[in-house]
Write a structure and sequence with these properties.
The protein has six helices and five strands, in the order H-H-H-E-E-E-H-H-E-H-E. With 203 residues, it is of the alpha/beta class. A hairpin with a 2-residue loop joins strand 2 and strand 3.
Length: 203
């Protein structure tokens, strides 16, 4: 049997077919922090609708009652960014130098609670917060709200914190129920409630 030989296709021809004729282009995968499944999306939608319904019913009064809290690790020393360390210099002077350093190995866990008027309570610990320690944190937070925000203390608190195991423990749930605080639903991977995940100002 006689086999017919096919003419080879050049690399440029293949690229033209793929790019021009088929309209394909080579791209890198886009990085995202988490995969949002349909279930997660539906929970986020339900939480957003619940928030809008509360706002429609209470208006600005509801916003003033919200107390938000979260934790973040704070290093003892963090090297300033290039922009933060920039200075003015004369044209005939050499640019300053600095040694490359990393973040301090020593760090503490900063737990912060705030509302629309500002920070209410800050606590520093050296270890991850467990249910027992978070119980004490809630007790201190209640006292801080009573002293610093007596208005919302008597009108009722709407607490926003994430769904970490220490926050959703039965002892914490029972304690918040005894406080008669309303805990806003916080679905998994719902970043809109706690900006301290990304930035904490100097208090």
């Amino acid at each position: 049997m006689k086999t017919e030989m096919c003419n080879p296709i050049s690399r440029m021809t293949i690229q033209r077919i793929v790019r021009t004729d088929l309209g394909f282009r080579k791209v890198c995968a886009r990085w995202v922090p988490h995969e949002l499944t349909e279930e997660y999306k539906n929970r986020r939608m339900a939480a957003a609708l619940d928030f809008l319904a509360r706002y429609e019913a209470e208006g600005e009064l509801m916003l003033s009652r919200i107390v938000t809290g979260d934790e973040t690790w704070v290093h003892h020393y963090t090297l300033p960014t290039k922009r933060q360390s920039s200075i003015w210099k004369a044209a005939d002077k050499a640019a300053p130098t600095k040694f490359k350093m990393g973040k301090s190995a020593h760090k503490v866990l900063c737990t912060t609670f705030w509302n629309a008027k500002g920070v209410i309570f800050v606590q520093y610990t050296k270890a991850t917060v467990g249910a027992a320690q978070y119980f004490d944190t809630m007790m201190h937070l209640r006292s801080a709200i009573k002293n610093k925000r007596p208005g919302i203390f008597w009108r009722g608190i709407v607490l926003m914190h994430d769904n970490a195991p220490a926050h959703s423990a039965k002892t914490i749930t029972s304690l918040l129920t005894s406080f008669m605080w309303n805990v806003f639903s916080n679905p998994l991977y719902f970043p809109d409630l706690a900006p301290s995940d990304y930035h904490i100002s100097t208090f």
